[in-house]
């Protein structure tokens, strides 16, 4: 009787062990299948080149523009970039022009401080950035990671940055007539609104400024450098704060909380609108020497209803109502209290209404 009982118990235990083993094997096999499927999906979306010499890896996100690039030509050309290819440099690194052939050119940003230890998280962020496609956002086409540096490969914006147009040579500024400035304002607003409201998870840019608004061949605005502020700490030598952002564009609450918010981006966009209207640089030494800001200066003048005094002198004969409306929209964005500022979707709507209805917002 007792023996029978033990035999039954052993049989049950063996059966249980058998079931557990089957479950474990099924679990491992399903994991392997899922990984293979995910890898194949990833491969369909990316082109991968390994560089045996420097130990680097280049990942390009597949897109129609890269369709014809089947070889490792990209990697070879990228690694040959030199000082003569430099377009400019900023807080995060140096930007180069990469010419693949007469019809294909890219902008390659070499990040100052690459390190192998952040690789997986860093790559995940870049993959997410590569998925973002919008007509007012600069496309990230791929990246290259090497043990001591990283490269980001963007589409090249032939007309450079809004900052260079507004504050560069006078000749370039002349090309920025009122309709062009208005189009740039609305395009940039749409790009930021897309990051804030349509991307999942929502993206806060954290460094909206005129040098991060680039211009394509049709002078359409494209927002660049989104995600970089969270990805990297800017150079300490740059005008950026330790956390993120650039003086002259930062919302007042940022200095208290150090927290980047969508409403902080709205404030920075308000500063860009003032830049478009006044032609003045928010980081201008004249403002810092006087202990004032572009924002406080303009607010005082607008309160006295003397907008024409602060308007860029090269904006002669522009429609007064439109200009005044953009002034008021910028002031709404620059409200000291974040909750009183409009969202970027509302800003887009307000800017669109100026053209369609010819409304006068401030009256
Ligand atoms: N995709 C691009 N196409 C063309 N020019 C670009 C592109 N990206 C950047 N540039 C140019 O390269 C220069 C440096 O850009 P970068 O973004 O590194 O610095 P920044 O915007 O001036 O400052 P920060 O790094 O603080 O944002 C700028 O003059 C910009 O116009």
Write a compact overview of the structure shown:
The protein has 14 helices and 9 strands.
Write the layout of secondary structure elements.
Elements: H1 2-45, E1 46-50, E2 57-61, H2 73-79, E3 86-89, E4 93-99, E5 105-111, H3 119-130, E6 140-145, E7 150-155, H4 162-167, H5 170-174, H6 178-198, E8 213-215, E9 221-223, H7 228-231, H8 252-257, H9 262-278, H10 285-289, H11 294-303, H12 307-310, H13 320-333, H14 344-357
Antiparallel strand pairs: 1-2, 2-6, 3-4, 4-5, 5-7, 6-7, 8-9
Bound molecules: adenosine-5'-triphosphate (ATP).
Adenosine-5'-triphosphate binds at residues 87-92, 95, 107, 109, 138, 154, 156-157, 160-161, 164, 207, 211-212, 214, 224-225, 238, 240, 246.
Task: Give a written overview of the molecule.
- The protein is of the alpha+beta class.
- It contains 14 helices and 9 strands.
- About 45% of the residues lie in helices and about 15% in strands.
- It folds into 2 domains: about 110 residues, Phosphorylase Kinase, domain 1; about 190 residues, Transferase(Phosphotransferase), domain 1.
- The termini are far apart.
- The chain has a 7-stranded antiparallel sheet, sandwiched between helices. The protein has a two-stranded antiparallel sheet with strand order 8-9.
- Strand 1 and strand 2 form a beta hairpin.
- The site of adenosine-5'-triphosphate (ATP) has 25 residues, from strand 3 and strand 5.
- The site of adenosine-5'-triphosphate has 25 residues, from strand 3 and strand 5.
